[in-house]
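Just curious: can you write whichever protein you like plus the matching structure tokens?

***
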Amino acid sequence: MGKISTLLAKKLNNYLSDFMKSFKKALKDDIKNLVQAKMDSVVQQLKDGFIVTTNFICDEQSSLKQEIENNSHIIKHLESETLRFQKEINVLTNRLTSIEKVSRSKHFEIQLVPESRTENPMLLFRNLCKTVNIQIDDENIHSCRRVAKYDISSERPRNILVTLINPRLRDQVL
């Protein structure tokens, strides 16, 4: 009985040992397969997330690139418009300078004539012309008026600006 028991125990031990080895191997393979499947699932989710993210970034980059190109075209157009306007401004400035020069050639100012509320600048100018023995008809005088002061706080009287019909008359008076 003891021998049978020992023999049975030995056989069972061998059988159990083989069974445990195959069970461990099967368990190990199953765990490995489960972990591998889970890892594959997680990796696929990460890939999908990266694909969505990179597609979004590419779309945004394309959108920004297009916007930059549009803005670049707008800037070039505005630069050309600015140059055109600067040229026009220069032309108009030159014309204005020329016109002002011609206009000023008919003007002269009389300074330090005392002011009064009831004065007539035209009469003051005619009296001045009589004093210096210059004969100027009224139709040769385009305008005669007081001009605003540059410095409002100044005590000096406002100047009288006389505009004649041509520069030769102005030169005679001067």
About this structure: DSSP finds three helices and three strands in the chain. The mean pLDDT is 88.
